[in-house]
Amino acid sequence: MKLSNIWFSALSENEEGQMLWITGRDDIEAFKSSGKFKERAEVTWKYSPDSKGLPSNEEALRMEEVENVLRRAMEKDKLSILTGIYTGGGERVWVYYTRTTRVFGERLNAVLEPFDLLPISIYTEIDPDWEEYTGMYELKEWRID
User: Fold this and answer.
1) pLDDT at res. 95
2) Closest Cα partner for 96 from 123, 56, 119, 60?
3) How confident is the model at residue 140, as a pLDDT?
4) Which of 83, 88, 92, 85 shows the shortest CA–CA distance to 131?
5) In DSSP terms, which residues pair with 86 in a beta bridge?
6) Residue 132, class by beta-carbon neighbours within 10 Å (0-12 exposed, 13-18 middle, 19+ buried)?
7) 12 — alpha (psi -120 to 50), left (phi > 0) or beta?
8) Is the distance from CB of 59 to CB of 119 less than 8 angstroms?
9) What CATH topology corresponds to 6-142?
10) Sign of the CA dihedral 70, 73, 79, 84?
11) Domain boundaries, the chain
């Protein structure tokens, strides 16, 4: 299975009616249908939002640095794949589908160890049908070109 680097962006609203930027990965049907990625891990970074619900430029750069390090570590052997990123309303959420949340957690801790304490939390769920991804992917019709 070859992991694409094809993404789309869309705008939506969160439950509070605030603007939500969505970045979703496209062309990953082989991973979805393989049955190997049955668990979902969500890494949430809370931040102080500006008037549009977005992070400051400085915090956005820190998030990007962490995202790049984490993504490289998780995807290098296809343990986990990043499928979506939500930003708005004072939080950024990275959604990964993984083979095992136990190893995902171990690798996450090892990769983030060099960083100062980050304002993140982790949520995991069994999601063999990729329900979260399917819901997010439906927003592709609202993509921003």
Assistant:
1) 98
2) 123
3) 78
4) 83
5) 22, 93
6) middle
7) beta
8) no
9) Alpha-Beta Plaits (3.30.70)
10) positive
11) 6-142
The closest alpha carbon to 134, from 54, 31, 7, 32, belongs to 32
pLDDT over threshold 90, residue 35 = yes
Structure tokens at 87: 């930003």
Q: Burial-class residue 51 by CB neighbours within 10 Å (0-12, 13-18, 19+).
A: exposed
Report residue 86 as tokens: 């939500």
Flag whether pLDDT at 43 surpasses 80. Answer: yes
Q: Which long-range contacts (CB under 8 A, 24 or more apart) does 65-71 make?
A: 66/112, 66/115, 66/118, 67/94, 69/111, 69/112, 70/43, 70/94, 70/108, 70/111, 70/112
Q: What is the pLDDT of residues 72-85, one digit of tens each?
A: 999 999 999 999 99
- Contact (Cβ atoms closer than 8 angstroms) between residue 24 and residue 8: yes
Please give the pLDDT value at position 14: 79
